[in-house]
Amino acid sequence: CFDLGGPKILLVRVQMAPTKDEQQTGEHAATTADKGTAYREIRAIHDKDTIRVYQAYNENIANLAIEANSFEAPLKAGVWSSRRMTWIKPSKVWMAYRCGWTILKNDPNQTRVLALDVSRSRFEELMMQAILTSHDFKNSKRGRKCRNSNVVVQWDPERVITTRREGKTSVFTKALPDVRSIQIGLRGDGIQALLDPTFVLKISDVTEDFRNAVSILQAGECDASSETGDQESHLLVAARNALWPKGECENVMKCSGELSEILKINLRNQTENGGKAALSKVAPSQRQMQQTMAKNDVKL
């Protein structure tokens, strides 16, 4: 039993089916990836009608978009561009890593996180246009296609919450090398979809979820010298509960065979490019993409 200023919680852990927290973060997938489980999957909060993705913005864009439930308002105000490539992500922890939980990276353009509930059928139609990034992004034929595509998909190592900061960039997350998380880049007609009310059904401000979760992790970091394994587990559960306060779960979204082929979803880690040794070459780094697409003012 642990008491950190709230209700006492008794933690009993039996290693059987994946727990809710493991489903949310992909930790269970990481333990089974070596056994042949597909490591490329779309894990998201979703139902038969909608799927949730995340974006980080500055205060001005976020306030206007939330008030109007549309990006038309910040577009008309001249603070949001439909000509600028932008990225959406269904993984909430990956979003936390990218924006530094909105407070750890001192980036004014990533101080707010918006959850976009979008039409699932329209999302799948959009994904049918996707071009996957290549490790030889700058010079390859696929790279050239990516630069001209309205929808670009990049599979990055999934991330999970940790109680350690692990340097300036990891910000209380760690990568799962055998599990991939989908990142979706939009430009042209792809970004126009974000202005369509039949595609973006609801825009919610979830910034406080990120700040509440990281405040728990920061408080635990201060007491790391006396932290036990059980206390660390309690800390992770508390942080996850703060990040998903409504108990939502990022489950695997089933895709059609055609879409799975386009996104290479069913690719298993031991078969891609000859095995694990090639995994690091599947996609370019985001820095490389930024440099290559600089003329488009890319936002990752």
* Number of distinct helices: 13
Share of residues in helices: 25-40%
In what range is the share of β-strand residues? Answer: 15-25%
Strand order of the largest sheet: 3-7-6-5
Q: N-to-C terminal Cα separation, in Å?
A: 42 Å
Order of helices and strands: HHEEHHEHEHEHEHEHEHHEHH
Overall mean confidence score, pLDDT? 79
Number of strands: 9
Biggest pleated-sheet summary: 4 strands, mixed
Structure class: alpha+beta
The low-pLDDT segments are 1-37, 270-300
Taken from the alpha-carbon principal axes, the silhouette is globular
Radius of gyration computed on alpha carbons = 19 Å
Explained architecture:
The protein has helices at residues 20-25, 27-32, 59-68, 72-76, 92-99, 120-127, 141-148, 167-170, 189-192, 207-222, 229-243, 257-263, 286-292; strands at residues 43-44, 50-57, 86-88, 112-119, 131-132, 151-161, 173-186, 200-205, 251-252. The protein is α+β, with helices and mostly antiparallel strands and 300 residues long. It is globular. Helix 10 (207-222) runs antiparallel to helix 11 (229-243). It has a 4-stranded mixed sheet. Strand 5, helix 7 and strand 6 form a beta-alpha-beta unit. It has 13 helices and 9 strands. Residues 1-37 and 270-300 have low confidence and may be disordered. The termini are far apart. Helices cover 35% and strands 19% of the residues.
What is this structure, in a nutshell?
The protein is an alpha+beta fold and about 300 residues long.
